[in-house]
Amino acid sequence: MVRKGALHGFAFPLLAKVAPPDAPKPKPDLRISQAQMLRGNQHGGNGIRVFSVLYDGMLTVLDPDLFRRALQSGVGHGKALGLGLLSVAGVA
User: Using alpha carbons only, how large is the chain's radius of gyration in Å?
Assistant: First the structure.
């Protein structure tokens, strides 16, 4: 999701941890609230599998035009299956 965010004009805050310089990269402050493998068939009968994940968290809009396009069109290759939609709410 971090890579997709960069492509679509948004970023996630990182988990705040005090770590030594050789520690692994900080992870985004996101929570996975649902994850499942979806299976189906294409028109030609070929089986397809798509892993669906529902993330909860905050994001920062870096490029309003790219972000607006992501809101309108979705993110990722599962859009044809109704995946990749963004639901956002402002923070007061």
Answer: 16
- Kind and range of the H or E element at 7? helix 2-7
Question: Burial, 74: exposed, middle or buried (Cβ in 10 Å; 0-12, 13-18, 19+)?
Answer: middle
Prediction pTM value: 0.75
- The mean of the pLDDT values for the chain is 87
Predicted confidence band at 41 (pLDDT cuts at 50, 70, 90)? confident
* Residue-by-residue DSSP string for 33-76: EEEEEEEEE-TTS-EEEEEEEEEEE--EES-HHHHHHHHHH-SS
HSE-CB for 41 with a 13 A CA cutoff: 4
Residues 6+ apart with CB under 8 A from 3: none
- Go through the chain and tell me how many residues it has: 92
Work out the number of other CB atoms within 10 angstroms of the CB of residue 19: 10
